[in-house]
Design goal:
mainly beta; 8-stranded antiparallel beta barrel; 18 strands; 3% helix; elongated
Length: 248
Amino acid sequence: MDPRPAWSACGAVLASLVLTSCGGELLAAVAFIGSAGGDWREDADTVQPGLQQRSACGTANGIGVAGTDPCVVNIQPANPPANLYATSFDVTFTGNLPGCPQNSTVGGRIEGNRISLPNCFAGAYVTVNEAVRDGSPRHMFFDFVPDLTQGIWVELQDGQRRFKFSSNSAGCEFSAPTRPAVNVSLIGSNVAQPAGPFETTIGSLTIAGDIGGAWSGRFIGVSAMSLKRGSQVLELQRRDESPSPPCP
């Protein structure tokens, strides 16, 4: 078993996309949509939590001698911008890990929580910011904050509540009669820092007039959230729709 605390049982459940219960938290079966569009950094320490940058890549002087550059793979959507509703999409990639190409026209594929970069990396997302290589304890980390503004966010429990965000910090619950304002505080990843954070999370989501207080939680891919407030659960999934009329 992986001893790293960042790799909780709930994290594994979120990545595997099953309908189950995790520590009393109901997780709906939602499609995991992966993140792309930047540098993934390879971890050197398979025991300690977070990123300890591996620097054994690149070109070295001497056959069979490891390089000393930070190990990085850059992954980009093949048809930018990234489609936030597609569970499967093509990517291009470059990297200095053994076998990775230097030519960005080489194609790879993201299928749900699976990442396939031929001759370079094959593995699975655990969060929007972290992936693990198949058959290896080696992890990759990526700074990324999902954009909340595209589409609308629909409650999965009964499909009645709908939210629209004008930014990553503000929006409204436009399905409610009074269209109350919503304030969001995201905690963005900072994987290069020793203390992280190594995963972008929802620090708080507050709905005006809701006496229950703030929700908090994590992203399930780039287009779903699992939020908790005490024993209550609120799960939201992005849909390609627009409110009419829009939020104030």
